């Protein structure tokens, strides 16, 4: 009993992060991903990285920082670090009012414009796509809007995230009922195959989406993304400080084709970040247009 008790104390002691270790790791994470962890979220690093220390057999967070900088396996550990510090909360049909605006106003406008130009090409970028619910939702909405005409279109939804873990499950396209908690039943019945209590996204939706790892703090990589008619970056910039937000939003501006739109999360704002876009107000959603 007493040895168990003393072990708990030791373990507890091992897992504490000092102020200077926290500052080192916080700055390192910021530099590598743009994710800013405020002082009052120190516990987040402590809790989420404790397991990494145990697995790597490191005695404190100082050693972990050293490992991330110099160990020969540091590249693989960066993936673990990103997986640990990102928040991947998402769902199909997240924020319905915004998606309604996309479906009823924005999409018809862009599709009509493309038909007039006789190009029938559509490029959408889902930046910070997590486990794939957002880009697949957009794919479903496109199928719903275009019906059989979709076969005459050249459509690509580019979906990126920092975390390899989430990209792996996004590519698999297999979901639990929880991921569908905000999805109308008719949509679930039409676009998913139920199998052993799971829900598999249909191949015709899956094939519209291309997943890949992109760190939004890497401007050079961002420049390589094909130019888009629409960008969805929802519930991602909330984790960045203003400097990083400015960097990311200006890359989105450069990437968007004229007349294209940027969608951000409903609790996010471009106030104090940029005046380059024209905010377009709709009931339940503000979206941002790149003007001529
Ligand atoms: C809360 S999820 C949002 C998912 C989806 N966009 C939505 O609204 O449901 C935020 C995602 O952004 C990703 N992310 C955070 N920082 C990133 C960065 N620097 N580069 C790329 N993705 C990042 C995280 O890995 C996470 O999957």
UniProtKB/TrEMBL annotation:
Transmembrane spans: none
KW Transferase (keyword) present: yes
Biological process annotations from GO: methylation
EC numbers for this chain: 2.1.1.80
Keyword S-adenosyl-L-methionine (UniProt): yes
Gene3D superfamilies, sorted: Chemotaxis receptor methyltransferase CheR, N-terminal domain, Vaccinia Virus protein VP39
Catalyzed reaction equations: L-glutamyl-[protein] + S-adenosyl-L-methionine = [protein]-L-glutamate 5-O-methyl ester + S-adenosyl-L-homocysteine
Record domain CheR-type methyltransferase: where: 10-292
EC top class named in words: transferase
Keywords: Methyltransferase, S-adenosyl-L-methionine, Transferase
Cross-referenced InterPro entries: Bact_Chemotaxis_MeTrfase (IPR050903), Chemotaxis_MeTrfase_CheR (IPR026024), CheR_C (IPR022642), CheR_MeTrfase (IPR000780), CheR_N (IPR022641), CheR_N_sf (IPR036804), SAM-dependent_MTases_sf (IPR029063)
Protein name per Swiss-Prot or TrEMBL: protein-glutamate O-methyltransferase
An example Gene Ontology molecular-function term: protein-glutamate O-methyltransferase activity
């Amino acid at each position: 009993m007493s040895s168990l008790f003393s072990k708990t104390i030791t373990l507890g002691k091992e897992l504490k992060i000092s102020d200077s270790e926290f500052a080192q790791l916080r700055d390192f994470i910021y530099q590598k991903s743009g994710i800013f962890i405020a002082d009052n979220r120190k516990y987040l690093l402590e809790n989420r990285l404790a397991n990494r220390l145990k697995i790597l057999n490191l005695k404190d967070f100082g050693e972990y920082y050293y490992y991330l900088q110099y160990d020969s396996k540091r590249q693989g550990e960066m993936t673990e670090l990103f997986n640990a510090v990102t928040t991947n909360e998402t769902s199909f049909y997240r924020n319905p009012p915004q998606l309604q605006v996309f479906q009823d106003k924005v999409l018809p406008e862009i599709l009509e414009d493309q038909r007039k130009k006789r190009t029938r090409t559509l490029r959408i970028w889902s930046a910070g796509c997590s486990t794939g619910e957002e880009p697949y939702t957009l794919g479903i909405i496109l199928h719903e809007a275009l019906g059989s005409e979709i076969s005459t279109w050249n459509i690509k939804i580019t979906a990126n995230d920092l975390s390899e873990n989430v990209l792996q499950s996004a590519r698999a396209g297999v979901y639990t009922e929880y991921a569908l908690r905000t999805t109308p039943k008719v949509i679930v019945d039409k676009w998913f195959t139920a199998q052993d209590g799971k829900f598999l996204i249909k191949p015709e939706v899956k094939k519209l989406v291309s997943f890949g790892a992109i760190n939004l703090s890497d401007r050079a990589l961002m420049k390589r993304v094909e130019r888009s008619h629409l960008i969805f970056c929802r519930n991602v910039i909330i984790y960045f400080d203003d400097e990083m937000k400015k960097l990311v939003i200006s890359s989105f501006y450069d990437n968007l084709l004229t007349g294209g739109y940027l969608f951000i999360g409903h609790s996010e704002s471009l106030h104090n970040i940029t005046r380059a876009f024209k905010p377009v107000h709709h009931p339940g959603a503000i979206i941002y247009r790149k003007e001529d």
